[in-house]
Design a protein that fits this description.
By secondary structure, the chain is mostly beta strands. It has 6 helices and 18 strands. The chain has helices at residues 2-19, 178-181, 185-188, 217-220, 240-244, 249-258, and strands spanning 28-31, 42-44, 50-58, 68-79, 91-100, 102-110, 116-126, 131-140, 149-157, 165-169, 174-177, 193-197, 203-206, 232-235, 267-270, 276-280, 286-295, 302-310. A 5-stranded mixed beta sheet has the order 2-8-7-4-5. It is globular. The termini are far apart.
Length: 312
Amino acid sequence: MALRLSVICLLVLSGLAACTPEPGSEPRFNFVGSSRFTSNDRLLTTPGDTLTTRVTGDLRDSLNDPLLQHYTITVDYTPKEKDEEKKLPQLVYFDTTFSSLNFNYQLTFGARTTSGYERWKHTLTNADGKAVSRSYLLTVRNPDSLKAYHPYKVFLQAARRTSSRSTLNARQGLVFPGFTVRDNPAAQQLVDLIALPSAAGGIELASPTDATVAAAAPVLNSTAWLTRNATTIRQTSLAQAQFSLLTKATDLVALYDSAKVSTTPTRSGALVKEKVLTFRTAAGRTGAIYVEDVTNNTALPRATLQVRIDKE
């Protein structure tokens, strides 16, 4: 009787083994560890800091395993507890399909400027649907909680290519590249300002509703952009010293209300170093921008901006 039970147990175990996927048949996928690259949880002391992550993946068995096929990056932006801003839904930051034995990718991105957390998740999937994910958590601390406005600095590139970091969510200081927003309605709804090439190799800011945005269709796929936030932009005569004195929400509102309305209120015109702009988003939030630096380059115009915007 004991022998019969042993034989039965062996048969059952053999059947289970046949139904269980072979361990290690999923892709190999990892962050590249280096002082240059972000691959672990980090506390960021510089809001809006620029970071770079590099990933690499391949097949465990190049002769028998299904090819690599799909790579995605998602990010969850979570505000710090007691912060007035609302949590955003998970955002698909990057999504691409391909067919290959191996995969390498390098992402350069800007961290949030408001206090809170970002969970970045990278996922590599093969043709059989087996996926491997790697993630890290970024914590940002911005000591502006007692201020009536949110101050931050951002680096924007004119929308010359899909990887250009050209779109800005003004309230939270989130910068997205063209490939994030072009087919993504959730990301499009976050955009308040777009950096576009201007004449003579310059850079200017435009509302998503501005007519010139259509010219950036190859980069932003603007024909698929159904919901556009209407932001208005005005020029001012302020200098940096006066910009620094904008310390109350009422200061920002008064500046916007007193600024001259241009003939094209949805576009700034070419950005000029040390000039100050004022703007109001579709959500009714008012802000000011000091143009800290501009690089006029026909290949990739770019600008560094100091922004102050009123809080909720």
